[in-house]
């Protein structure tokens, strides 16, 4: 239609109808042929317009797009007369783009038909039209060049009334909003381009030029409010006075890590930026973990670690690894001007709550360690985020538990985790998670008196529980590790030392079998019977003999005094125990010896000691 409208009369139009190209691709080629016959400046304007229309987003209104199209390499100032005119753009690019209304940004320029973009993508290998082709890498360079050139213009290199306040700056320079928000994504695609690399070094200079400081301020302004970019003027102008000193404590490396720009991070390290320099947002490695959420530290009342579940992006994890390779340490998170002191692993769990096992494994490989606040953080997650998140974190918990080298921390984590689940009926009824009872078994097994006593004192705690894998009572577990203190604690809370396990072993059987001399002495003094047989007919004597423990045999022999018999809890001690020993010794005599020395110890100990006391 545009072509027919150019004809001077109807006769010419009828003639033109006969020569119209067949199909949309041929029509678009005819339009580009006309552009190619225009001056180079017009061709450049069309090429840039097509790139920016294809990349248009909610921040790219028509004034912003016209500025982007008008920016040339090396520009330091964009005079009004240097701006391309909207009508000129529409005239030269007619049939390719048109003006359309947008509820978010007002009028915008967009492709006249979806087939225009498809055509422009398809011509990248065309010798004649490839200059107008939409190639992602080429477009990224063009867009990054325009953004960096704009951010480095003289208007932003020295203080002025226009740039005194962030909100006023964004109003005065319409393309700046797009440049701030989209530059990071462009740099990820084309940082290796020579011109882009040069411009990036100029903006993100370690010496912090004014253009960088203004960029950092405006970025924080946007992220700090987490707004939708529709009411930027609502912030008080005191933002600059309150925030600028805090922002100035952070260098380009902190922001590059925050934005997930790995190549820029390594380039800044090469230029001499310290990988462990602290700032308002923590160290660069903390910024990589927190992302743009680190700007929440600008709030004056934020003297605690906040919690906002999110998944760490792969780009940020790569930066953490890259910074570690060049000397960054996984130090505590202690941002300047704040009383926060959090271990790196606790900070990770604080902000990355969802299915974090793979990342935790990587961080352990980088040297991150589990500290007390790490455990508290995990328990907080379990307590605060309900059944769904708790279920998602069960694997994380199990992995951390298996990774802990410090036994005390492992016990604390298991106990705290179990308590958090038992306090939440939803979790305890739906998850295959450890309970406070299993935590008590772990604490006793580890010989931790303090943790055992704490768990014993919990409301509703049962001490008549057994270990799941072998049904062993708590008292027997303590005896196996020679922990008299835990046995005393159990006894003080009413646990009977006469309890037997599934094999019929008394606690004294277990102590004798495991060389627990101190425990044997304690149990004998506590009145435990020395002559009770287990299901095999063995007494504690036999267990000591089988273990070749002469010291325990001596103690057992001394224990057969009249005082012991008087305190023995065994019913009908004089008949049952004596008969047991007599039958057992006779059985041992008729049994083939396993080894001369072992059999000799066994027989001499049992026969001599038993017969001299029980039968004599």
Structure commentary:
The chain is mostly helical and 616 residues long. Among the domains are: 1-134, no CATH class; 370-430, no CATH class; 435-496, Serine Threonine Protein Phosphatase 5, Tetratricopeptide repeat, CATH 1.25.40; 505-615, Ankyrin repeat-containing domain (Serine Threonine Protein Phosphatase 5, Tetratricopeptide repeat), CATH 1.25.40.20. The protein is 58% helix and 2% strand. The protein is built from 34 helices and two strands. It has helices at 2-5, 10-18, 24-36, 40-54, 62-70, 86-92, 114-122, 136-151, 166-172, 174-190, 194-203, 210-225, 238-247, 252-258, 262-270, 284-290, 314-325, 344-351, 357-365, 372-384, 386-403, 407-422, 425-430, 436-445, 449-456, 474-480, 484-492, 507-513, 517-525, 540-546, 550-558, 562-567, 573-590, 596-615; strands spanning 97-102, 106-111. The protein has a two-stranded antiparallel ribbon. Strand 1 and strand 2 (106-111) form a beta hairpin. The longest helix has 20 residues, at 596-615. It is elongated and about 115 Å long. The protein starts with a helix and ends with a helix. The model is unreliable at 227-237, 385-392, 424-434 and 562-616 (pLDDT under 50).
């Amino acid at each position: 239609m545009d072509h027919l409208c150019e004809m001077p009369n109807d006769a010419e139009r009828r003639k033109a109808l006969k020569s119209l190209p067949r199909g949309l691709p041929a029509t678009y080629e005819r339009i580009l042929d006309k552009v190619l016959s225009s001056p180079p400046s017009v061709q450049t304007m069309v090429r840039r317009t097509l790139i920016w229309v294809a990349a248009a987003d909610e921040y790219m209104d028509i004034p912003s797009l016209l500025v982007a199209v008008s920016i040339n390499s090396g520009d330091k100032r964009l005079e009004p007369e240097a701006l391309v005119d909207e009508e000129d753009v529409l005239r030269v690019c007619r049939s390719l783009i048109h003006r359309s209304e947008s509820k978010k940004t007002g009028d915008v320029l967009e492709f006249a038909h979806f087939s225009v973009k498809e055509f422009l993508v398809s011509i990248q290998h065309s010798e004649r039209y490839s200059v107008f082709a939409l190639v992602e890498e080429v477009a990224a360079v063009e867009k990054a060049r325009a953004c960096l050139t704009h951010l480095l213009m003289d208007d932003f290199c020295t203080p002025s009334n226009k740039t005194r306040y962030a909100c006023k700056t964004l109003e005065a320079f319409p393309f700046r909003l797009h440049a701030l928000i989209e530059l990071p994504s462009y740099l990820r695609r084309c940082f290796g381009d020579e011109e882009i690399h040069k411009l990036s070094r100029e903006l993100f200079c370690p010496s912090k030029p004014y253009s960088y400081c203004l960029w950092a301020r405006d970025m924080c302004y946007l992220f700090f409010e987490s707004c939708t970019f529709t009411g930027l003027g609502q912030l008080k102008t005191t933002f600059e006075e309150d925030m600028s000193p805090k922002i100035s404590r952070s260098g380009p490396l902190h922001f590059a890590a925050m934005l997930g720009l790995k190549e820029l991070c390594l380039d800044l390290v090469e230029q001499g930026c310290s990988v462990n320099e602290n700032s308002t947002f923590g160290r660069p490695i903390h910024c990589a973990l927190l992302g743009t959420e680190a700007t929440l530290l600008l709030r004056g009342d934020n003297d605690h670690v906040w919690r906002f579940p999110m998944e760490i992006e792969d780009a940020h994890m790569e930066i953490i690894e890259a910074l570690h390779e060049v000397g960054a340490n996984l130090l505590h998170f202690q941002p300047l001007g704040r009383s926060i002191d959090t271990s790196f692993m606790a900070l990770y769990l604080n902000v990355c709550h969802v299915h974090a096992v793979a990342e935790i494994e990587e961080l352990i490989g980088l040297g991150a360690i589990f500290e007390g606040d790490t455990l508290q953080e995990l328990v907080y997650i379990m307590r605060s985020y309900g059944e769904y998140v708790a279920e998602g974190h069960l694997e994380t918990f199990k992995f951390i538990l298996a990774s802990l080298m410090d036994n005390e921390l492992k016990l604390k984590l298991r106990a705290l985790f179990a308590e958090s689940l038992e306090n939440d009926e939803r979790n305890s009824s739906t998850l295959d998670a450890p309970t406070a009872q299993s935590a008590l078994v772990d604490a006793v097994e580890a010989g931790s008196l303090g943790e055992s006593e704490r768990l014993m004192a919990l409301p509703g705690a049962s001490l008549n529980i057994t270990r799941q894998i072998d049904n062993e009572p708590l008292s027997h577990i303590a005896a196996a590790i020679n922990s008299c203190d835990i046995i005393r604690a159990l006894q003080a809370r009413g646990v009977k030392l006469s309890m037997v396990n599934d094999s019929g072993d008394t606690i004294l059987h277990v102590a004798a079998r495991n060389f627990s001399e101190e425990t044997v002495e304690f149990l004998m003094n506590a009145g435990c019977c020395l002559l009770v047989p287990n299901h095999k007919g063995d007494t504690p004597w036999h267990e000591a003999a089988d273990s070749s423990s002469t010291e325990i045999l001596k103690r057992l022999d001394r224990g057969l005094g009249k005082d012991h018999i008087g305190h023995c809890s065994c019913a009908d001690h004089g008949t049952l125990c004596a008969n047991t020993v007599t039958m057992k010794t006779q059985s041992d005599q008729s049994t083939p010896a396993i080894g001369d020395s072992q059999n000799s110890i066994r027989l001499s100990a049992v026969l001599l000691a038993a017969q001299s006391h029980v039968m004599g």
